[in-house]
Design brief:
6-stranded parallel sheet; 14 strands; globular
Length: 317
């Protein structure tokens, strides 16, 4: 039986992944670690153990690993792209020093580690369409630099110390459970809330900006499936491209209009987030993940849009 610690359990991915892990492995075996004394989600607090777990406080993490006999760590704590640009030094401290702390502890206590990377690891010189698994990576944002450094650190700890550390490169993630948290792809979540609440939305990206996206159920599936895969099947281990759909603001607007015909959109471009988006791929090639560990998404744009609208209608009642 696995004993799992989720660091960053109150964030966009962690708040949902923690619950999915508890469903799979038992509530008592999955510790939710957050930076707040009490999580905003009652479901997260009431469904299993919750502890303060700051990735910049390794002694605190070590105590949790010993207390709960942790053997697997999902390290999700990080500053996202737009937030990182506002405070680059803090982004480096949290995203890199926090990861190093976790890797060192995992080495000492023989824990497996999941580390999520991002499409942010690519840059202007990377092929934009069907971005290969192995290609040039010259990110122009501090977020991308930290995520690329994280991939390299994870590879280093595997080759140097035989640490079982694995990860994927997530595209933009869309969820009806959690609100946006400072990312460049946040518009793809905000647009649903505004469509239902106000029937109009002002988008901060240009209408023809294509980005890879994924619905949260697929994101959770990717993390858990990779960590369950037999080690001898994995060649890359870290930084696997995973993709589900690629669309522009204009296209998701058109899909939502099928359900809410009166919905309107306008554009007020945020230069910072637009420049970040322009440096990222339009779409990623995830054939390596499909071949090595059987990755296969379940949701495309129409199926996701239908589910998002149905779920948000119930949530916003």
């Amino acid at each position: 039986m696995k004993n799992i610690l989720v660091i960053g359990a109150t964030g966009q991915i962690g708040s949902e992944l923690t619950l999915a892990l508890r469903d799979a492995y038992g509530s008592a075996n999955v510790v939710a670690g957050g930076h707040k004394r009490k999580p905003s989600s009652e479901k997260l607090q009431d469904s299993g153990p919750y502890e303060i777990a700051d990735c910049l406080a390794p002694k605190v993490l070590a105590a949790l690993i010993e207390k709960y006999k942790i053997d697997t760590i999902y390290h999700l704590a990080a500053l996202l792209s737009a937030t990182s640009e506002k405070n680059p030094k803090l982004a480096w401290e949290v995203n890199i020093q926090g990861l190093i702390n976790v890797l060192d502890l995992a080495k000492s206590y023989q824990c497996a580690v999941f580390f999520p990377s991002s499409i942010g690891v690519f840059g202007d010189s990377t092929p934009k369409d069907n971005t290969p698994q192995d290609t040039i990576q010259r990110p122009s944002t501090i977020y991308g630099i930290t995520k690329l450094t994280g991939e390299l650190l994870c590879d280093y700890y595997y080759h140097k110390y035989n640490l079982d550390v694995r990860g994927v490169r997530y595209p933009g993630l869309i969820s009806y459970e959690t609100l946006p948290g400072g990312g460049t792809t946040d518009y793809a979540v905000e647009i649903f809330y505004e469509a239902l609440a106000h029937k109009e939305y002002t988008c901060f990206l240009k209408e023809d900006t294509y980005l890879d996206m994924m619905y949260m159920p697929d994101a959770l599936k990717a993390a858990m499936q990779l960590m369950e895969t037999e080690s001898n099947r994995l060649i890359h281990r870290n930084g696997y491209n995973v993709s589900a759909m690629s669309f522009s603001p204009r296209e998701i607007f058109g899909e939502i209009r099928k359900w809410i015909p009166e919905f309107k959109i306008s554009y007020e471009i945020d230069p910072i987030r637009q420049s970040i988006a322009d440096s990222w791929p339009n779409s990623m090639d995830d054939n390596v993940a499909r071949q090595e560990w059987g990755w296969q998404p379940e949701y495309d744009l129409p199926k996701m849009t239908k589910d998002m609208i149905e779920k948000l209608k119930l949530k916003l009642k």
